[in-house]
Amino acid sequence: MHTKTCAILLAMGGPDNTGNVREYLYNIFSDRTLIRLPGGPLLQKPFALMISNLRKKKVQQHYDLIGGGSPLLRWTQSQADQIAELLGDDLPDFRAYVGMRYFRPSIEQAVKQAYEDGCRRLVFLPMYPQYSLATTGSSFAVASKAVKRYPDLDTVFIKDFHNHPGYIELLRTYINDNIRGDETLLFSAHSLPQKFVDEGDPYVDQVYETARLAAGDREYVVAFQSRTGPVTWVGPDTVDETKRLLREREGGLFVVPIAFVCDHIETLYELDIELPQVVGGDAGKRLRRMPMFNDDSLFAEALADLIRERAGSRVGS
User: N or C: which end of the chain has fewer CB within 10 A?
Assistant: First the structure.
């Protein structure tokens, strides 16, 4: 008997307009897997509400500068649609959905919709190339809880694809097609509290492996962005490394967002607007960022191949 297989693409999510920024921030700061606020689990949500209220206005200004909302859902949905079409060649009823960890559509909503559409085998694919408990792990925890409501569901969790040949080949192509001869290659990844690494989180090691594979024979530097809060974060910091490289070297700096696959606040604001401003003057004009995959059909093909390989005989059986 044929079992209908579907995929759910997991991503962080983002507010669709500035009016939903507080809700988005509250969802992030309520997640104790990601951020362990003081006071223990009982005070996590009260503190999250306070922080989201305090940060709302500033973050709204950032989203205003990138068009008034996050484009992440649009790009992720485009990839889901293309994956469904690609895998539909073998599975006419294959579908792909999007589940966002901190905004809508939620992971729970995606699972419910998939089940109502007749899916009984779900492949969960995070849009984070490298695994971290704070990102993929948190999404997997929500997904695992959601599927327990449906005892006849079979599940496949694709943990990462940081060294998958299709992903690496595409990333290397994007670098080679866009970098200039006088530019230094700088990989920038979202940082992680050092305590996660000390507890065995593989994220940082996987970031460095991705960088090594994608750079090929090129010289490169790895740095980490988006560090906030009074904890020790993994470094070196992207801003500090950018200033150092522009000070010590001639030519430009080609920045590759290595932990992201499509445009959102960390690329469109932090790297495109904030970083040049912080660097300042003529030095800021020496920065260029690699385009993201966004709705590139080649990325959809790589993800479709990944689903075929990692799900094995479960896809199409």
Answer: N
Could you say which residues of the chain have pLDDT below 50?
A: 313-317
Both structure tokens of 200: 């065995």
Please name which of 26, 32, 28 lies closest in space to residue 44, comparing C-alpha atoms: 32
Is 88 within a domain? no
- Are the beta carbons of 301 and 293 closer than 8 angstroms? no
Which residues fall within 8 angstroms of residue 211, CB to CB, at 6 or more apart? 187, 220, 222, 258
Domains in the chain, number = 2
Strand, helix or coil at 268? helix
Residue 15 CA, distance from chain mean position: 15
Integer Cα distance of 231 and 225 in angstroms:
14
Domain that includes residue 205, residue range: 165-289
Decide if 100 is inside a domain.
no
* Helix-helix angle 297-311:72-87, to 10 degrees: 60
Can you give the pLDDT at residue 16?
96
Question: Does 153 fall in a domain?
Answer: no
